[in-house]
Design a protein that fits this description.
Helix content: 25-40%
Order of helices and strands: EHEHHEHEHEEHEHEHEHE
Strand order of the largest sheet: 3-2-1-4-5-10-9-6-7-8
Distance between the termini: 20 Å
Radius of gyration: 20 Å
Number of helices: 9
Low-confidence stretches: 117-125, 247-254
CATH topology of the largest domain: Rossmann fold
Number of strands: 10
CATH superfamily of the largest domain: HUPs
Strand content: 15-25%
Shape: elongated
Number of domains: 2
């Protein structure tokens, strides 16, 4: 991974995403592109226009002032991380925010999300869900703006077939001291050989040279429920899973499952597209 894309609206959760991206960039020697997308028109323009319109300030001038402020905020934010190469990108568009994010062809997207109850302009749950569904690269969605990103408990959601997402997470995220939980969810729709499944999870831990591991076959009504319930019960710091993304098919992790987990999980979520 050489290019990490971090969308920002300068909110607290977006700033945390940048902080995490900087940590990852140091680990893997990557560069960061910090992207602020201004969708025209937005509520800020209306606010400026209502305040200054009577004084002869046009909506174009109000928009121009918004862009000037964005450049200043970008400069201040980037100055906090002189040890990493960060490129500032401010884009104007009349299109959807997610389309602008995906146009940048990153190797990794790190973004904040307020989840299902989020209300910020760009970082409500629906946008992070759509990025996860449409992205062709791994996506790390940060949920906690307060704590340092040092996952102590990581849940790897496995179907015992796909495993590239495990490798991607281990190689690129700061998981050196984390306890790994290999989770297989049994929703009753497939016949599961519990002994065989547990043996395969043990082999995964051996393959990645992990000794501090737990293995769980968890019964739940749905795959989403099983992932969320287990992560909550174990107080997980990070969920790692794969998704079929935009080309989703009827399989263990079609896009909708990953999207739902991203939107409702209390902890951060890392997804990687696999076919």
């Amino acid at each position: 991974m050489k290019k990490i894309l971090v969308p920002t609206d300068f909110s607290e959760i977006a700033n945390k995403a940048l902080e995490v991206a900087v940590k990852i960039a140091k680990k893997i020697e990557a560069r960061i592109e910090l992207l602020n997308v201004k969708v025209y028109p937005i509520s800020d323009v209306g606010a400026y226009y209502s305040l200054y319109g009577a004084s002869g300030v046009s909506i174009d001038d109000a928009w121009g002032e918004i862009l000037v402020i964005a450049k200043q905020e970008m400069k201040e934010l980037i100055s906090k991380y002189p040890e990493v190469k960060i490129k500032s990108l401010i884009e104007e568009t009349s299109e959807h925010f997610v389309e602008s994010v995906l146009d940048h062809k990153a190797d990794l997207i790190v973004m904040g999300s307020n989840g299902a109850d989020g209300f910020k302009e760009f970082f409500r749950g629906s946008n992070s869900e759509e990025v996860v569904r449409m992205a062709t690269c791994p996506v790390l969605v940060i949920k906690d703006a307060k704590d340092d990103f040092k996952p102590k408990k990581v849940v790897f959601v496995v179907d015992l077939i796909h495993e590239e997402f495990i490798k991607k997470a281990i190689l690129n995220l700061p998981l050196e001291n984390a306890e790994f939980h290999f989770l297989h969810v049994d929703d009753g729709n497939r016949k599961v050989d519990y002994l065989e499944a547990e043996a395969k999870m043990h082999k995964l831990s051996e393959k990645y040279s992990r000794k501090n591991c737990k293995f769980e076959i968890f019964n739940a009504n749905t795959i989403e429920d099983g992932i969320l319930e287990y992560a909550d019960a174990e107080h997980a710091d990070l969920i790692v899973m794969y998704t079929h993304g935009r080309t989703g098919i009827a399989h263990f992790f079609k896009g909708s499952i990953a999207e739902s987990v991203v939107n409702h999980a209390k902890c951060s979520v890392f997804t990687n597209v696999e076919n």
